[in-house]
């Protein structure tokens, strides 16, 4: 082309971004000999987000400000997405709060980003702010809100979203339907999840995975196997997530032979799906819970990938629970050189050495933990009361109604003890 204007450059850059060639798109942007327009900047911001190139993304943000485009909604929304993709939620929140006018895209970007980044409580709080602002949610943002409800076990909020979807006549497409099934299943309402699942004529692999994952979570092993077989009979092909769900179901229900069968079935497929760390972790956990420590160690030895913290944790927990502290030397050697920033495995290993009265090893492990600055993270749980979520940590006394809760717990504790004495 003898003359290349901003439209020509932006069109070519956009093409590279759409097919995932972000580096080539960046190189083209740097070659531009004309002034970029809003479409150019939006395209480059998207490229930076997808490639997690925060440094260049900040540079584009600065150029946007210098060129006077920082107030454009399309640019601001793209920047929020970019910061979320780069895991800079503080920058995304700051930019979002500075917007004079927030449209549905702005709210969707921020709420979806919080859900994706594992901040469901903050996502629901922001959703409440959106409703107060008068912006009506669409099915995209409602899908994200359902995911947040699933993560928190916020059944009341999830039911409200369900009623809103039906009341507004929003079509339950694959995404909305799957999110509803996932929410009800994870909130413990399996019957409702099954009802919605059976109402859907079209079921994607994600829809099946949501149901199987919910059944697995709540220990319905036989029901999960039945639905898995029904899935394969309908012609749907299981993926890695499907196999993880069915292996988890077998693990929770103690179905060892079924778990072996599905794991070997997955391995035999070779090209279609391949077992990853999570699948090996489920099998090790299943074998350990069944007391088959020898078979679990053999599986770990033959793994094509390095065992992670969950696999070692399952093995050591089984040793502790069964009182069997005899591990093969090569397994101990691999454990000894295990590098992790999780204190749980080191504590289990230390306890195992202590049970064998190997006090020098106990001191060495404790010293190693101190050098790494590792401390066991406290356990926590979330309770929903009147659509508000209360998180409690082990030994936590900071809640405003702690004394009231303690009195109630003490009352029921004494009451139960009295009943036991009478019986």
Automatic annotation (TrEMBL):
Gene3D superfamilies xref list: Tetratricopeptide repeat domain
Keyword set, alphabetical order: Repeat
Ranges occupied by PPR repeats: 5-35, 103-137, 204-238, 239-269, 342-376
Keyword Protein biosynthesis included in the entry's annotation: no
Pfam families from the UniProt entry: E_motif, PPR, PPR_2
GO annotation terms (biological process): RNA modification
GO molecular function: RNA binding
The name this protein goes by in its record: Pentatricopeptide repeat-containing protein
Lineage, uppermost ranks: Eukaryota, Viridiplantae, Streptophyta, Embryophyta, Tracheophyta
